[in-house]
Amino acid sequence: MFDDSLDKKSSELEKNNMNNIKNNNDLIENDEINIEEKKKHKNEKEKLKQNQIEIEQNSNYNIQNSQIEKFKVPPNLKKTFIMTMILAGLGIILIILGFINAIADATPGGGIMFWILGGIVIIPGGYYSYQFYKAKKATDEYVRQDILDNIPEL
Prior knowledge:
Blueprint (H helix, E strand, L loop, with lengths): L1 H69 L7 H28 L6 H26 L3 H9 L5
């Protein structure tokens, strides 16, 4: 009688063990499927991110190209633009001549007159050149118009 109860318990234990093994195998298979699904999902997310980055780069490139093509100096500011470039160029030339004069004379104040004149000329020329550059690089039409409105006409 004692042996029969042991046999029954051992058979029950074996059945429980078999069930546990089956459940574990099912879990392992489910885990493998879940891992594969997670990998696929992760790959899809990475592809979407790469596509989004490419789209943003292309749109930025298109915006930059369209802005470069769209911007033209307004007709009422053409004289101002030309004078701005002349003043900036003349200021740079005068400052360079001041250095050449100072080096050639080898005196401590040899090029001071050229530096003063160059500084007086380059300040407005450089400022308005920068304003035109900012207007060219502006991506918003309202910002561009605001910058151009602050440049005086000649």
